[in-house]
Structures are given as C-alpha cells and as structure tokens.
Amino acid sequence: MKVYRISKERYIKDLSGEGARIYGGRWNRKGTSVLYTAENRSLATVEYLVHLPIALVPEDTYIAELTIPDHIEYEQVQIKDLPPQWAIYPAPLVLADIGEDWIRKNETLLLKVPSSVVRGEWNVLINPKHRLFNKVKLTDVKAYSFDERLLKTHKG
C-alpha cells in the first residue's frame, strides 16, 4: 500500500505524528501521536488545502510517499457506524474517541477512515508507536506545488 502526506519541507520526513500530538485532529486528541496520510495524492492535496487559508499556503511544500507492505492488517471505520453529522467541522468528539480507542488498543498499525472532505475516499492513520511501525518506509519525497486554480478564491 502506498499512502501520501503533504507538509512543509522541514516536517516532511518527520513520521512521528508530532503535529497531530500537538494540535489534535479529527481522529485524535491533543497529546496522542498519529500520522495522517491519504490513499492518493489528490486526496492528500485537498486534505492539506482545506486546513489552511489560501493566503498561507507555503512555498516550500513537499509530498511524501510512504510504502507499507500489503500484508499488514488494518482496521477500517465504516460510515454506517458513524453519527449522521460525522463530516461536519469542527469534528464531533466521538471521532476522536474512535481514534483514541484504536491507539489505546494498539492492535493494528493502520486505521482507514473516511475523508470528510472527499466522500468515498479514505485517509489512512498510522500509529507511530505500533510494533510494526518500522515496516512503514518513506519511499519518495518531492517538492510539490499546487495548481494555481486551486489557490484562487472563487465568488459565486
């Protein structure tokens, strides 16, 4: 399995989940390390841009490709098991409860979660404290730029 993450150059090789630990996220609380990735580059792009005002998109953006052996088992959160308003922002606290429970159990390295930004696509959370974390390989890092059309504000 290949997964992707986008970050500023100085953080792109940091796979510790430190950013999520400091700030928390949809699927984790502050204080819990989780590495957020996406199943494809396009979802990683949209997930990155939705969390940042367009004026603050940094010039030094990079994309990382991580490879995880296909035989590694994962858990998957099903939309049918989530509350009706699961995709709203800010996220319902029950989502962080699900992620925290997964981390606490520490049974699988990966948790596939539905994207709230692009319905039908999946993000992949990686537990950096799992015993199989050493199987996650940073296989490619490249400078990344966004198409200018994505950075324009549109008025209706």
How much of the sequence lies in strands comes to: 15-25%
User: If strands are numbered along the chain, what order do they take across the biggest sheet?
Assistant: 2-6-5-4
Mean pLDDT: 94
Describe the biggest sheet? Answer: 4 strands, mixed
Q: Which ranges are low-confidence, i.e. pLDDT below 50, for 5 or more consecutive residues?
A: none
What is the subunit organization of this protein? single chain
Total number of domains: 1
Q: Counting H and I runs of at least 4 residues, what is the number of helices?
A: 4
Integer-rounded radius of gyration: 15 Å
Distance between the termini: 39 Å
Order of helices and strands: EHEHEEHEEEH
Q: Please identify the structural class as seen in this structure.
A: alpha+beta
Helicity level, as a percent range? 10-25%
Tell me how many strands there are: 7
Shape: globular
Characterise the protein shown here.
This protein has 156 residues and is α+β, with helices and mostly antiparallel strands. The protein has one domain (2-145). 21% of the residues lie in helices and 24% in strands. A four-stranded mixed beta sheet has the order 2-6-5-4. Strands 1-3-7 form a three-stranded antiparallel beta sheet. It starts with a strand and ends in a 5-residue tail after the last helix. The model has no long low-confidence stretch (mean pLDDT 94).
